[in-house]
Amino acid sequence: MRIDIWSDLVCPWCWIGKHRLRRALELLGDDAPPVEIHWHPFLLDPGADATPVPLREAYAAKFGGAGRAGEILAQTQDTARAEGLPMDFDRGQVRVTTLPGHRLMWLAAREGDADAVGEALFRAHFAEGRNLADPEVLAAAGAEGGLDAARVRAMLDSDEGLAEVRAALGRAQAMGIRAVPTFVIDGRQGIQGAHPPEALADVLRELAPPPAAGQDDGGRCGPEGCEA
């Protein structure tokens, strides 16, 4: 089963959704199909650049004041911690462009482990308050996915991957993706948002391919044989 995921590296619900998907697969147990995950970029804040702006300040400007921004961050943090994620918006997070991070994800998908790199980037931002436009932060995240730091720095110092990431962003726009996380299961069903693991498990169960004819699925065998 192929699962395509559109996300941004500073989207808290994308980190929550990533872990809810993992939990959904765990809930399926032996019924979980083999899964191939493909990550795709999305820019929640395409106007951001590499100049750090305190996140709380950016949220206050976007959501109508510091009070409302604080409420949103606190509610999101509580949800994440209930999922076991160490999200902490008191670590000095900053608003910066995530384009370099998406280029790193592009590289990891070809030469390393994109899932591990994405997890490292989420953790760096949400749990540690690191600047995701800092090449050293990106190099450290790349190492979590098996990428050599010098390779990451060389990529960031060039235009490598830039055209490919911009093309992917354009495809997301053409597909009508306007919010993240967005999951597309086997190209057949789209799911927008970080739904509870139980709901995701139901969708995965419904869309999972049936066992091949004559194959013992481990669940419908009796004393005289097994049903296909």
UniProtKB/TrEMBL annotation:
CDD domains: DsbA_FrnE
Region (Disordered): 208-228
Stretches assigned to the DSBA-like thioredoxin domain: 3-204
SUPFAM superfamilies per the UniProt record, alphabetical: Thioredoxin-like
Superkingdom of the organism of origin: Bacteria
Lineage, highest ranks first: Bacteria, Pseudomonadati, Pseudomonadota, Gammaproteobacteria, Lysobacterales
InterPro entries in the cross-refs: DSBA-like_thioredoxin_dom, Thioredoxin-like_sf
Organism field: Luteimonas padinae
The name this protein goes by in its record: DsbA family oxidoreductase
Family matches, as Pfam families: DSBA
